[in-house]
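Researcher: I'd like a structural prediction for the single chain below. Treat it as a standalone chain; there are no partners to consider.
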Amino acid sequence: MSRSDKKDSRSRMLLDDETAKGNVAKGTTDDSAASPVEPSREELGGGSLLPPRLFKHQELTKPPKSSPRINKKKLTNIINHINFTNGYLWVHLKDSRYEEDIFVRAYPQPCMGETITCQWSKESVTSFECHRLLNLVIDDGMSAIIVPAKLLNANRNHFTIHMPDTGYILGKRQARRYTCHEVTAELSQSGFLARGDLLDFSPLSFRIKVKPDFDGSFHWLNPDESLTLNLYRNQKIIFSGPCRFIHQTGDMSVKEIVLSPLVGQFNRFKGRKIRSPRMRLAPSSSISFEHPLSMKRVERDIHDISVTGFSVHERDDESVLLPGMIIPELNINYSGAMAMPCIAQVLYRKKVKKGLFRCGLAILDMDASTYGKLSNILGNVLDPCLHVSDEINMDALWEFFFEAGFFYPKKYSLIESHRNTFKETYRKLYQARPEISTYVTYQKNGHIYGHAAMIRAYERTWMVHHLAARRMPGVTTHTGLNVLKQLLNYFDGLYHLPSVKMDYMMFYFRPENRFPNFFFGGFARDLKNASACSMDLFAFKNYRIKSVQNTLPDKWSLREFSAVDAYRLEQFYRNHSGGLLLGALDLGHEHSGDVTLKELYKSHGFTRRWKVYSLAHVHELKAVLIVNQSDFGLNLSELLNGIKIIVTDPHGLPWEALSSAIDQLADIYKVDSIPVLIYPHTYLEGIDVTYEKQYYMWIMDTQYGADYLEYMKNKTKIKLRYALKFFIRRYLKR
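Model: Treating it as a single chain, here is the predicted structure.
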């Protein structure tokens, strides 16, 4: 008999899980009390009645004098609670023919304190001619309560015993064990695969029942090596991690295996030196969820929280949070009045003091609207002037845009004739607060002093825009810097949320604008990795439309963008820039099985679409034109409501051909002039065509979000230090 097979008789024990883990390394286990588990019908081959469960540890039902005791009153309450919850207990019987101890399941009836009546389980069969009733055993997950039985009467349906004055408590666990239902288990080890079900768990161990997959064999399972356990509910993974083998029972066709997780802490996201600030909220906040393994309702008070995660405390006798476990539906409850649903994952479980553990959880996903609410709550704790996607006074917003110089005369002249349409667009954006946009404002007494916004511009690209600030009376710090810092805190938790769909972050700025050139452009220049963060310089021209009838020159054609054109475009851009422009603009990608950005905008009463065309000369690609459409004023510079042009052959494209192509495509705008962005910016200079200004198109792959946040937070610290020195010097001069 193998070493593991010799442990079969111990499989139903209530183990001290931490002791068991330590003893496995020594080749021993320390069994402390009984915890029999009835086999499934499938294990016995169909719907037949279940036989009694053989029990081989008689010494555990003879409690020593030192065992803790439980009085009749408390025992009565426990029995009634089991009845109220439709629970069961175990009946310890002695088979007089073979002197064997067996366990069968029974369901207690309401108890008045003098007798206990229980119904036999319908799935069990017992012959009373050959059996003697010894004890009732109640397993509460932490320990076994032994109730000595004095039988009063019994038949095939039920039995009644005299209620003893005391019961005995045996086998105190380090953590409570919970029964599971409908959780699929998958066990693997170097090519060996077994599948089955999770039977029960504690924060320290799992008990699974599995069969080898296909032609596999338990002979391939090495108990001295680590294993990987995957757990699923409704085909969605809820746990995956390496485990240590504890012990097993069963034969070579099906086994019950107890495993202990090897990893007590892990990092879900890339680590960084500067973390999001964690706060303790007042009024209090909490979490609530249905446990994905036991399906029991769980509530915990939040110890501290940030935009990326939170921590809670658990007592050892109520611990249910396992490092690595994913909670698909968790609510963050604030002040009892607001519930913020999310998907979370347990990252660690650390002992704080005897009997108390701290568990850290990461927020894996949350919709943009809910994330805005959480950010607003946390932002107000850091700075009462900060508001994230909060309700806004539109009159105060208009006043700010004019006072801050954001609506300078030339820009206002472009929107003046459409100001009513413009106002309605912004009312919907700032008061309906759809998930396509978000904003941060810095306010005091109803006045706005700083503003920054982000909008989902392409399928997986968000654009930062409307970054503006004005001086706040009585405040010496740079208001724009405060807004930028809070925008970074907001971005910290946003970019890794899958439902937000932020693979890229985009920002347009003028080269002469020192503030964004320092904080955005500086990162791209310092990183020196265009595949992580790139800046492409565009020429901006306010193009006056001539006539849709303006035909293309001979041998020139304007067609829909094709796969061949995509290859040529990628080849040009890779060798000319090597940046992120094509990925961010989502050129040539098909989207299926998900709501497109066009549909999402439409559902909120907005317009957003784009179409790509190729300009060719005798089938040779010369330029790619991206025709963007959005609601008027959605972006104040109309960078989402014009044509972007990438010239792939600057020397082979005459302005006559390009301007004719623009005229043919511009009819959809129904205006006299449209904004046109042309890359590379040197193209117009080379053909001696004037343009108004230049824009950097700054794009970052959000996989480098942690690097960007660290860089930016260091820069804002430096900037604040310089500002403080400047004001001190000026004060001393006075």
